[in-house]
Amino acid sequence: MDTLAKVLKSAAQGGFPPPDGGLTVLPQPSPRDAGVLALTGHSVVFADVPPEWVRRQVPPDDLGAPMGPPFLSALCGRTGREAGSIDVLLVLPPGTGPAPRREEPRDTRALVGTPDPAHPRVADALAHRSHVRVRTTADGGTLVTGRGVAGRWEVAVEVEPSARGAGLGRALAATARTLVPPDEALWAQVAPGNAASLRAFLAAGFVPVGAEVLLRPTGDGAETAG
Does residue 29 contact residue 151 with C-beta atoms inside 8 Å? Predict the structure, then answer.
């Protein structure tokens, strides 16, 4: 039986389900992780709900239905959770990254074990990821890595307004590749409207895989990771 971890590993290597308009229902990879992943012409629901119930909620001729408000509302009601934002899901495959750049190394200091829990990126990571590591730069950047959905390595970046427009976001996204095992894919979730973040991750070598919405326990706010 496929698991979400297998689906993600295959997608990171360029292998996707057939774009047949199909729907796959998988169990949650952990009590924490539930949601919907939309790939090209195929959707994956990962939640501890009966597959037959899911299929009754989704019109078979509507490719967008698994990400639509009616189904997400029904799924949230069934699971007792609330939906976060629908994000673009990007991946940096194992062994890949941007071409080396002739740049002065940035002054990066590790905050391992002492992240500021008040920082929204840090607070979200501590709530929804394990093995969280936070690094900041002297010029206003924050880089967060950790294991998220189905144990995948995830990265999030934040750039202070005064430091934007100078390539810091791209540099942080690229630096994340060096902070996780080289044989592991690195994932990022970015809100579609966050064009600056999307450009930064694309420039750092990340490629779009699909769209994803995560379901959080009611009252557990969800921040976009990218």
Answer: yes
Take residue 141 and report the two structure tokens written for it.
């950047």
Alpha-carbon span 172 to 167, nearest angstrom: 9
Residues 98 and 202 in one domain: yes
Residue type at position 179: L
Q: What is the mean pLDDT of the chain?
A: 86
- Examine the domain organization and report whether 109 and 71 are in the same domain: no
Cross-strand bridge partners of residue 157: 143
Q: In terms of domains, do 66 and 94 share one? A: no
The Cβ of residue 51 has, within 10 Å, a number of other Cβ atoms equal to: 13
Q: How far apart are CA 220 and CA 23, in angstroms?
A: 27
Check if the beta carbon of residue 65 is closer than 8 Å to that of residue 181. Answer: no
What angle do helix axes 168-175 and 195-203 make, rounded to 10 degrees? Answer: 50
Domain that holds residue 144: 90-207
Q: What CATH number does the domain containing 123 carry?
A: 3.40.630.30
User: What is the structure's pLDDT at 211?
Assistant: 98
51's tokens:
């597959």
Buried b (16+ CB within 10 A) or exposed e, 24-48: bbbebbeebbbbbbbbeebbbbbbe
pLDDT score for 141? 84
With cut-offs at 50, 70 and 90, classify the pLDDT of residue 117.
low
DSSP 196: H
Report pLDDT digits (tens) over 96-105. 755 444 333 3
The structure tokens listed for 132 are: 């969280």
Q: Are 172 and 226 in contact (CB under 8 A)?
A: no
Name the 3-class secondary structure at 172.
helix
